Every structure is written in structure tokens, then in C-alpha cells.
Amino acid sequence: MSEAKRWLNQNVKLLRLAEAIEQYCKTNDFETQMSKGVDWYNIQASKAGIARSIVGARRCLNVIVRGRAEDFEVAVGTGEWGKNIFASAVTGALTFGVGFLTAGASAVAYKYFEDQLWDFIKSQISALKNSDSQPALLCPKCSKHVSLDFKLCPYCGFNLK
Ligand SMILES: [Zn+2]
User: Is 70 in the same domain as 38?
Assistant: First the structure.
């Protein structure tokens, strides 16, 4: 139920990509929320009216943008609204809830939207190519890759500003 694609050497500002995806979901009448971690963005989109009443569950579309400007992965799958899929996971495989197809009509609607969303994501990545002019910096203290958005190193707490 989930699909992931990887892009290399596109130099894409991932925050802008994540925000564009969220906006696209909103434009298509989805309720959205975004969470953010050290090297990932998770956009959740839910058609509250359809999905919750029919399925009786808090299903949603889960979009993950993960990695660095030069090497990132986008995954689209279904998940549970409000549940941070990384909360219990160590940095590892992307895992999604399965069994969404039992939802009948709403699943078809989601699947249809997923295909549209992939087209949108691909066009956005082309549009955002070279949008992240500055590469991620290396923390001077612990030498890990750190996004320029961060004031403190998320690994060792070093003040980066
Ligand atoms: Zn550090």
C-alpha cells in the first residue's frame, strides 16, 4: 500500500517540497497536518467526511519526505491520523499501516488521489531543482549532517548559529 521513490542530485529544498505537497492536499479538500524531524517531513491528509464516517477509523494519506537535498526519498502510503509514524521507529524502514483497501469507495478515492499526487510531486521536484543552494552543514562538534534550518545540532546540542 505504500510506494517510495528516491531522488539523487536534485538539490531540492525539502521544506518547500513538503509545504507544496501539503498545500496541494488542501487544495483538493483534504484536512492536513505536518510534522517534522531531523531529516524528514510527514504530511498527513485526511478526507474527514468520507474516510472517517465510512471506515470508522482515522485513516489518512501519509506522505513522507525524507533525507537531504541531494539524496531524498518520498513515500506515499496510508496511515493513522495523528500518529507519528516515526515515534516508535528507529531510523529505518518506512512502515505504513496496511489493510486500507477494505474501506471500499473511500479507498478508491484515496487511490485515485494518490496517482494525482505522484504526478504533482514529480512536477514539483523538477520545479524545485537546485532550490537548496546551500548544502546541509556538518556539525563542527559531532560531524553529523544537519539541516540549515536548525539552530542547535539535533544530535549533540551544539549551537550552530
Ligand atoms: Zn552535533
Answer: yes
**Whether residue 46 is found in the same domain as residue 86:** yes
Q: Which domain holds residue 149?
A: 136-161
Q: 72: CA distance to ligand 1 center in Å?
A: 21
Placement of cell 496496511 in the chain:
98
Label residue 45 exposed, middle or buried (CB < 10 Å: 0-12, 13-18, 19+). buried
Q: Which amino acid is at 99?
A: G
Mean pLDDT is highest, among 45-49, 50-54, 71-75, for 71-75
The Cα-based distances of 127 to 56, 94, 143 in angstroms read 38, 26, 31
Distance, CA 142 to ligand 1 centroid (Å)? 4
**Cα 154 to ligand 1 centroid, rounded to whole Å:** 7
pTM: 0.67
